[in-house]
Amino acid sequence: MPPRLARLQEALRQANLDALALNPGASLTYLTGLHFHLMERPVVGLFTAAGEQALILPQLEAPKIAERSDLPAFFYGEDPAQWGKVFRQALHQLGLTAARIGVEPTRLRVLELRLLEAAAPQAEFLAADAVLADLRAVKDADEVAAMQHAVAVAQQALRTALADFRLGMTERELAARLVMALLQHGSAPELPFQPIVAAGPNAANPHATPTDRPIQEGDLLIIDWGASWHGYFSDLTRTFAIGSVEPELAHIVAVVAEANAAGRAAARPGRTAGEVDRAARAVIAAAGYAPYFTHRTGHGLGLDVHEPPFIFADNPAPLRAGMTFTVEPGIYLPGRGGARIEDDIVVTPNGARSLSDLPRDLQPLG
Ligand code: ZN
Ligand code: ZN
Questions:
Q1: CA 235 – ligand 2 centroid, Å
Q2: Of 47, 67, 54, which is closest to residue 6 (Cα–Cα)?
Q3: Could you tell me the CA-to-CA distances from 118 to 33, 84, 95, 157, 285 in Å, in that order?
Q4: What is the C-alpha to C-alpha distance for residues 175 and 225, in angstroms, rounded to an integer?
């Protein structure tokens, strides 16, 4: 049995669940290696604590699993009236008609839940998001390799986009070049998010969208971008100086770089997610900018762009080798500018390693 399914079986038993029912999404991809989209027809993956699995899906998806003899399928045709019968067959065959079935409350739709409930009226449907988060948080070597590649693609794309940078180019123009470069360097078209390209006053907004304002001398420029590779994401941020910037703006970039380094250095097995946040935050507080670091230090990264572990001060979750997350402290001075430096790191047996290695100190542009 594949290691992920073996780990799932153990996790289901510990959570006192008989099975899992999943809609298309990161968790279903994690367990099957297959990508399905949410659509008007139901697609559900079933995984039992006894090690059985099955998919309920439309006949037209049959080619996708033609070579997966390990994945029994329950197909239905174009008539929605067949759905109920096929769901009953599947739940009956897997012995789940009176089972405790785990679901993802933020993902399973009413459409599928109603079909599952009708097919198994005695079953209980319980939140299993914590079980899945726990499984997915620790990455295996293949997953880390995919993320490392997603980081490499993102870094190459940024170098390509910046080679075309000219003073007076708008945030929107630079963002467009970056998107094109991401695709050219091999990112899957499903980017983790639209790049943030924010200069001058716009850089003081952590979630800025690119505008038509020309990027000009004296601006700090924040670029937050990522690539997608085999379903896994990268998510990076670097801050640049356009020409010469006023001394305090250069100073906040240096403070943020130091905070980023402190956060990365604090990550190791046995420490908590909260300790990583506090290490980065302490550097910014000591420099007198605590009120201007307005978000958490990072978030887990993998098949989702935001997933556990979340790196905030009070998170007691212990770090384990194989966990991957961002370290992205920032300082935002309203009306003037901002700085953020974001790396993707993987916890190793003795510490943590950054998957990204673009320079973090203030690089001049333009
Ligand atoms: Zn980011
Ligand atoms: Zn991020």
A1: 5
A2: 47
A3: 28, 7, 15, 49, 55
A4: 9
d(CA 344, ligand 2 centre) in Å: 8
Q: Sketch the domain layout of the chain as residue ranges.
A: 3-136, 138-365
**What whole-number distance in Å separates Cα of residue 355 and Cα of residue 324?**
9
Structure tokens at 147: 């993320």
**CA nearest neighbour of 128 among 23, 282, 209:** 23
Q: What is the mean pLDDT of each run of 10 residues along the chain (366 residues)?
A: 89 97 95 91 96 95 90 94 96 96 95 97 96 94 97 98 96 98 97 97 96 97 98 97 97 98 98 98 98 98 96 97 98 98 98 97 90
Residue 314 Cα to ligand 1 middle (Å): 21
Q: Tell me how far the alpha carbon of residue 327 lies from the centroid of ligand 2, in angstroms.
A: 8
Ligand having the closest approach to the CA of 154: 1
- Please report the pLDDT score of residue 99 as a whole number: 97
3-class SS at 158?
helix
Bridge partners (DSSP) listed for residue 337: 333
Ligand nearest to the CA of residue 306, numbered in listed order? 2
CA distance 19 to 12: 7
CA–centroid distance, residue 168 to ligand 2 (Å): 27
Ligand number nearest CA of 340 is 1
Superfamily of domain 3-136: Creatinase/prolidase N-terminal domain (3.40.350.10)
43 Cα: distance to centroid of ligand 2 (angstroms): 30
Ion ligand 2: residues, CB within 5 A, are: 235, 326
* Distance between Cα 237 and ligand 2 center (Å): 8
pLDDT for the residue numbered 3: 86
Compute the distance from residue 87 Cα to the ligand 1 centre, in Å: 40
Full DSSP string of 50-110: TS-EEEEEEGGGGGGGTT-TTS-EEEE-S-GGGHHHHHHHHHHHTT-TT-EEEE-TTT--H
Residue 154 CA to ligand 2 centre (angstroms)? 13
Distance 33 CA to ligand 2 centre (A): 25
CATH code of 138-365, in short, is 3.90.230.10
